[in-house]
Amino acid sequence: MSIFNNNVATKFSDLKPRGPGGEALLEAEREKINFDVKSLSKFMYTEAWLDKLHRVLSVIESEPAFDKTSRYYQSRSEKIKTSLWKDRRMVELARLFLREHLWDEQEFQIANFLFDQSSPFTLHYSMFIPTLKSQTNDEQKKLFLEPALNHQIIGCYAQTELGHGSNVQGIETTATYIPETNEFELHSPTLTSSKWWIGGLGKAANHAIVMARLITNGKDLGPHPFCVQIRSLENHAPLKGITVGDIGPKFGFNSVDNGFIMFDHYRIPHISFLAKFSQVQPSTGIYSKPPNAKLSYGTMVYVRANIVMGVRYALAKATTIAIRYSTVRQQFVDAASPKKWDNKVIETPVLDYTMQQYRLLPIVASAYACFFTGREMLRLYELNQEAMKDGNFDLLADLHASSSGLKSLTTTMAIESIEDCRRACGGHGYSNFSGLGQFYQDYLPNVTWEGDNYILTQQTARYLLKTFRNVVAGKAEPSEYNHTISYLTQFLQNTTAKCPATKPADFLNPELILSAFGFRAAYGIAKVAEQIDREGRSWNSMLVEISRISKAHCQFILVRNFIVTLQSDPTLTRAEHKPMNQILRTLSALFALHTMEKELSEFLLSGYLSSEQCAMLKEQVITLLDVVRPQAVGLVDAFALPDYYLHSALGRYDGQVYEAMTKMAEAEPLNHTLVVDGYEENIKPFVHQGRTFAKKDVSVSRL
Amino acid sequence: MSIFNNNVATKFSDLKPRGPGGEALLEAEREKINFDVKSLSKFMYTEAWLDKLHRVLSVIESEPAFDKTSRYYQSRSEKIKTSLWKDRRMVELARLFLREHLWDEQEFQIANFLFDQSSPFTLHYSMFIPTLKSQTNDEQKKLFLEPALNHQIIGCYAQTELGHGSNVQGIETTATYIPETNEFELHSPTLTSSKWWIGGLGKAANHAIVMARLITNGKDLGPHPFCVQIRSLENHAPLKGITVGDIGPKFGFNSVDNGFIMFDHYRIPHISFLAKFSQVQPSTGIYSKPPNAKLSYGTMVYVRANIVMGVRYALAKATTIAIRYSTVRQQFVDAASPKKWDNKVIETPVLDYTMQQYRLLPIVASAYACFFTGREMLRLYELNQEAMKDGNFDLLADLHASSSGLKSLTTTMAIESIEDCRRACGGHGYSNFSGLGQFYQDYLPNVTWEGDNYILTQQTARYLLKTFRNVVAGKAEPSEYNHTISYLTQFLQNTTAKCPATKPADFLNPELILSAFGFRAAYGIAKVAEQIDREGRSWNSMLVEISRISKAHCQFILVRNFIVTLQSDPTLTRAEHKPMNQILRTLSALFALHTMEKELSEFLLSGYLSSEQCAMLKEQVITLLDVVRPQAVGLVDAFALPDYYLHSALGRYDGQVYEAMTKMAEAEPLNHTLVVDGYEENIKPFVHQGRTFAKKDVSVSRL
């Protein structure tokens, strides 16, 4: 049947889409933009960063190891194999530092950002090396960190177990000190103690940071980190006493070899115990405690600030695709307001429908909201690090608590928004060529890892309740940095305050918006405090309300950072940037009011808003959609995400959606043969039963 | 390196999970159940159906073509190939009718249900054959339907185009009558006219129903169906003039070969035009119109009733997995109420946390809600079919409108619930072994196909607004079958009614619940009518509110059918079934009150509920969770879904979660070799740089 192995019948002809084409439609959209798109990009990224982006892009776009053409067609093992290739090539490119490509660390990060797919070495960089940097003594730095930086060893970070996730204190793997040989014995006592979900462990790593319960002199001292060799450096075979492998296919993230590992009385040398903060004395096995390290909270704030910044990219990517496609895709003629093109009625671009605007434009606004809050979190992180050096821990509690809730809130927003954008692309959103499917799958773990999004809200709520009690007791004063105390104080001064709005446009007033969000958060906190402190309700029975007050607090922060930055940022308040500031102000109002509408029952229950005001609020949201609509393409263009990064048929800058869909369909491996594998056994016998074939029935012309 | 091709290091030892094991925990749960699980299963499915289920199950569990062991590891082409195998074997088994296995049509359906994965032949059964049955004349039945029933031809249904989805009237493919040869010429004039998304077309089908614009005597008569051969019956090669192939990878549904097809002046004989309802006269090309067929609305009701019943299965599957795993999975010790086992404190099973109950138990309730509404829709469908035969179309409009909104509402509920259940399984929910990942991916198109969920709400809303205007004008009388008219009439009699609840338990009163849902739906409809009819707002600007009133109406129906059935069903009201009725009543209240809480702002805005009542409502929801919690495992066991169907490590009936996870990980194809493909090129060069190897560094013992 090899005569069919040409691809004629699956090649599309040169036909054009029915006009107007995507190019013309997007061009018309871009003519409507009333602010300078490039200035907005520069404001968000800096010109220097954008230059780096383009330099790195030009390199990797022509690197076969970074080619994305086959990304959506690959099987699991192909994904792993090509990811390893990319990992190797990345190291080679980075090593060209000071020679051909001049990549610094930021450019290395940009290359990973643009490639946009985690790989077996990802955890080597994001967890193995940072842990070695922060938790080793000098001898260990030489032994582990230096070869890790040179890729002479490849590592991962093994904490989670099959039966133990969020509750790290419950892990079962033990590391028992053996004074006779000055070794530790790693052991997995049960099936549930198997390390599980460990990125890079399944197939790539030869070392692992293993979190295990330190036992010395018969005492269980809880989880501590060990740096452990797990595979041969000569031939990569697992070492004796170790059971290790890949945990199997996942919802996404299949380019990473998440692995399992079990230890059977596996001996490791004394030096394996990471000894920067606590030590086990050789021979005696005497343990010395780490200093109580509030400092590590600072690192968590940093990680979470970056997650919030990452949310901005996720929302930017999803909306860039959905908004551009929504201006190209046309559906039905809106009889009341028919769209014309060259004096002819055409079907209406779906972004002209209010429902589509309502589904997408608030997400564009939330991308900007996350940008401003991420930036503010990084600023406060720096401030706090400085303050802590001077022994000042005043900032830390508020910052840490907010960062927990913000990680929870914004990653949940992100995943919902990616899916909303995907669905807003109609049927084609379901094709992997949309660029939104694998993206959703790969993004999804963010709601579970780095703190489960439900559990995290308890941390935030605990702080909010404690602060409330302090404010009530007069033990907390408002400060420049602590807005929690400010809104709680304001609430306690007038617990029956009412929203002053008398017409829809009043809801555009930033002060009114901030008061509303502060009041609503404070009201919820006060209610929960009352139920726990006065009515004696258990923490467990209050978990639903507890997650609500964390969310209310973090929505206040997002709204506040957006509004305050627009009022105070020196770049944005320059006269030349007035149009840009104007559209950002509109977006900040849309973000705030749409959020209020989503959470309307809480604003109503607190007594702050009346039914009449809610109707005004809803009206104002629809009015804002109308204002943002013509700027929509400009607002996503300003995210400056290259086509290589998006890898989406629907989200292309040039709008050639249908041309791209057909090209990508041609490349589907199933189309490489005209007759499907399985035809002979499973289709032919039915079709041929009791039939003889006339000449005309065969596609002779093709043979 | 073949010495590593044994699998020793990736085989788990015989260790047990840390106790208590899943078996013991689930057994303890089952001891708490206070109703008869089997009776509830029988009530929902009938004993006869359950017998069939078990008979079919025993056959396919030992059929290699139905084996699910490799399901989660397969590449796209492996999925297609094994799906074709299953399709063939299914035909063979069905043909054994009256011989060995005695499968009737229901058993055939059960086998497909249990296999739980669509395949290339799926559309042959669900669209090709039904269309041929309903739209052909006798000659065409002989020519197309008979061979289709015998699988001598395999077909699909080609309507959607690359540029045209919901707006069927906008499709571009033409079928021009050529009187000279008495043929039609199928043609695809543009790239956007390519048929797209057509299940079974990509690789399997040799025929297609093609929807094309009929053009005869220069007149465009809009879309009509044609039955068209597209591939050779002798060797399966595409016929000349056709471009056909698979559209590529999708978010899910990758076991189906969704395809594209374009026609280049492709001639088909006159007989291809499906001629039951309209005809083109040979030679003259004179067209005769179909009778105006309201009748087809009946079929849509039937399809949608089955979608709602399908939602019940989706919710049942998701909750069975999540509830069982939540009783096995333990996390943290709840200090205020520590869980004991054999007098020892253990970590608390996560289902004991209120938040977990709040996330899962309302979904269990909604599965039952969908069952009762699906059943009622099927009953009304039958009633309506009978009525229409007598020329009575009174029932149709309400039934059709409700079915549109219910399809939209319940499939949206289903997909959100599947994801909520997946997330409630923590980290392991992200593993494909949870059974929830591919399930989510495959279920997702339900929110877009058979009517996009947003667009459908407009149909419902149009009917609701029209009915409202009729009621206001005194032109509509309440009837036994039209509850829309009833609640609108009731609302208009007192538009400022208030909820009479004075304590939390008052919210358990079914009459109070129904009044609340009716009032809230009517209030929303009245508001929208006012804004459109009096304030002159455009339909487009009202789309957000329009989707809300459709939802409000359909939530009323779901709540009503649940409550009324429990009050009136002859089986449920029997004395012996009192415990079963009791728990179902609790579930109906949980479903209703949790829905009210989700939509609280609408109940508040309508003025029906006060803030104080909302607090009572929330309290009552938490109380109900407490009542349902001990019955949770019984309620999902009653869904009677076999382990073969669930194919989930987390949802197993016996609770052996961790044993199953490790077994399935062992089977991951990446673990079939100890050293990963790509090691030599991409890892070894780094690791070996500047290193010599001592004997000890190699895992000699294994070699």
From TrEMBL, chains A, B:
InterPro entries (UniProt xref): ACOX_C_alpha1, Acyl-CoA_ox_N, Acyl-CoA_Oxase/DH_mid-dom, Acyl-CoA_Oxase/DH_mid-dom_sf, Acyl-CoA_oxidase, Acyl-CoA_oxidase_C, AcylCo_DH-like_C, AcylCoA_DH/ox_N_sf
UniProt-annotated binding residues for FAD: 160, 199
Residue ranges annotated for the Acyl-CoA oxidase/dehydrogenase middle domain, each copy included: 156-264
Catalytic activity: a 2,3-saturated acyl-CoA + O2 = a (2E)-enoyl-CoA + H2O2
Domain spans labelled Acyl-CoA oxidase C-terminal: 509-687
Domain Acyl-coenzyme A oxidase N-terminal: 36-154
Gene Ontology CC annotations of this record: peroxisome
Cofactor: FAD
GO molecular function terms attached to this record: acyl-CoA oxidase activity; FAD binding; fatty acid binding
A Pfam match: Acyl-CoA_dh_M
Pathway(s) the chain acts in: Lipid metabolism; peroxisomal fatty acid beta-oxidation
Any one GO BP annotation for this protein: lipid homeostasis
Alphabetical UniProt keywords: FAD, Fatty acid metabolism, Flavoprotein, Lipid metabolism, Oxidoreductase, Peroxisome
Chief location of this protein within or outside the cell: other
Domain Acyl-CoA oxidase C-alpha1: 297-465
Cell location: Peroxisome
Active-site positions on this chain: 450 (proton acceptor)
Family: Belongs to the acyl-CoA oxidase family.
Name assigned to this protein: Acyl-coenzyme A oxidase
Species, as recorded: Rhizopus stolonifer (Rhizopus nigricans)
